[in-house]
Amino acid sequence: AVDHFLQWCAAERVVYDNTASVPEPVLCAYAASLAGVYAGGTARSKLAGLRFAHEQEGRRWLGSPRLKRILRSVELAAPPSAHRDERPPVTTAMIDEALLRLDPTRPFDTCVATAMLVMFWCQLRGAEILSATRRFDYTALPTVSCLRLRADAGGRASQVTTALWLPRTKVERQG
Q1: List of residues 6+ apart from 157 with CB closer than 8 A
Q2: Name one GO molecular function term (predicted).
Q3: 69: part of which helix (H) or strand (E)?
């Protein structure tokens, strides 16, 4: 983010003093230059990276409500390539086909089948139940203690399904 900002400063002939905070009009001009080139989330990420660098170096961030409005406009002016076509939903037939191709005697295939079924029936993202590293994050990813019978989770006693309680998700940081 900082490198991109510095490249923009050089291209626009903006004098940048890396010992002082970037002035608010310069931040707004930089954000506006991203319109029609990047998606709104990418523009926000670039400014978030620049803000992080400011805070790491002990400089004050001079963002403003005007900068937020400009970022909203950048989001609305995103190029067509920033929008993906809606993908067809995964169906039970697709799940069945995948299950037929997995070998239940192989532990890895069993894990893949389990993850696939849990993600499908709970409509989860893979990162919400699978660790991206070999180190498991017990504060963010579900454990066996997160599984409860539906009756234990407040459902009817006759229900034999289980509930999966996630410590946190992408949108619900508190679970």
Answers
A1: 151
A2: DNA binding
A3: helix 65-76
The residue assigned the tokens 């999966």 is 164
Q: Helices 24-33 and 2-12 sit at what angle, rounded to 10 degrees?
A: 90
Residues 6+ apart with CB under 8 A from 156: 150
- What amino acid occupies position 112? V
Sign for the CA dihedral angle at 86, 89, 90, 93 comes to: negative
| Residue 50 to residue 62: CA distance in whole angstroms | 11
Q: Is the pTM of this model over 0.70?
A: no
Q: Which two tokens stand for residue 40?
A: 């709104």
Q: Which residues on adjacent β-strands are paired with residue 147?
A: 164
Extents of the domains making up the chain: 1-82, 88-123, 137-174
Question: Mind listing the pLDDT tens digit for each residue in 39-95?
Answer: 888 899 999 999 999 999 999 999 899 999 999 999 888 888 777 777 788 888 898
* Closest CA relative to residue 90, chosen from 52, 123, 65, 68: 123
Nearest to 30 by CA among 106, 20, 19, 49: 49
Total Cβ atoms within 10 A of residue 32? 16
Q: How many CB atoms lie within 10 A of CB 96?
A: 9
